[in-house]
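Entry 14. Ran structure prediction on the chain below.
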Amino acid sequence: MPPRPAAAFGGGLLRGLVAVIAALVCAAGAAGVGAQSGSPPERFTMRVVTQGLDAPWEITWGPDGRLWVTERRGRRVLRVNPADGTTAVALVIPEAHQSVTQDGLLGLALHPQLLKGSGNDVVFVAYTYDDAPGPAFVRRMAVRRYAYDAATGQLASPADVLAALPVHDDHLAGRLVFGPDGMLYLSLGDEGSNFGGNRCNLNHALDLPTAVEIAAKNWTSYQGKILRIAPDGSIPPDNPTLKGVRSHVFSYGHRNPQGLVFGPGGRLYESEHGPDVDDEVNLIESGGNYGWPRVAGYRDDKSYVYANWSASSPTPCASLPQGRGVGPLPASVPQQAESSFQAPDFKPPLQTFFTLDASTEVQRRPGNTIAPGSLDVVTSASGVPGWNTSLLLPAMLRGLIYRMALAPDGRSVVGAPIEYFKTTNRYRDLAVAPDQRTFYIVTDNDGRTLDEKGTPVRTVANPGAILEFKYVAN
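Output, structure tokens:
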């Protein structure tokens, strides 16, 4: 799949040989996000590297100078030449189950010693599969290891290192990264429990596994968690002990954490989807409690109230209309204010998006959420001037990247987020090239987003594409 010429991109968005675009701030909803208004001074060229991918989900820069990409729907691992867009298939996983908008082949983690002569030429992936024999269907997630053959460019010798992880048809998460400690970190969502079509399912994001469950390798309580996994699938001996039990659980109380990245000092950062409001960026600490579903964003009693649909009484939940966050809740549904959650291990976020006052009408529309697709970091002083050190967050429902400058200690965000790279697309993930001045973004094939005027649309400009944005010195 060759790259599409820049001059033809976006139906006239770019004209000429190479169009240089300003990193414009999207005005629509900026007050709700708290993003900086105006135009940042940096300038970037924009190019379509390739498109026609089948629901790309992960993109990462490989030690071979290629962009490694997973296709959630296509069930493939691809290696893409960033110079000309030519694509080689490294792996197809036909048994990866894909039937809803969030399952299939998801996370990808390249071993830090890949192609460095250490014998660790291995790659890990996270994928969903059918865990029930016969006509029944039970969706589960597994982490699988493959050996990479540089001569053939193929991944082979599959071995599942951890399987039977709990997932459902919503909020699957699935981001997979290697830590500087040599451990794998995997995000699992809350299965959409207590929300939408799954509103009658009890949310277990704050529940912790018991010793009996761990002994039986029953991982059902892992939903809404970030896991820390030894490369052989075992529980690391220095994982946190929570309520007297050591498990794969590293942190808990998460909704749909689709972004994981390690920054300077080995600090782990995460992004996750909020419930129409309060999309979050967090600093993840061992044993940390991030509050969901009792807290969304800060413990501030603003527009979010925990409504436990599964406990509806005397009217059972199944008899109630589906809640969409608009209008009064049914009287039978118990409600709890965020301030009533007084867990001593609660960790507030570094940054939220669309933290609205209680008086604000909350509606399910792109204007009230950014839908964070992933998270990355830039750290080099030789990269884009002024960007060291910053988190970069792709917004699926806005088609842009938020840059958040980190404080020197990495434990807080300095100033308001700044918006870059606006197009009429859904940004799923991004990769930072070694020069830290070139950025590659994969886009969804379809779905809701905002166009250049801030109008909600369902037609994206570059479906299933890799977009390159390269810094141009002024």
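The domain at 20-472 is CATH 2.120.10.30 (Neuraminidase). Will compare against last week's run tomorrow.
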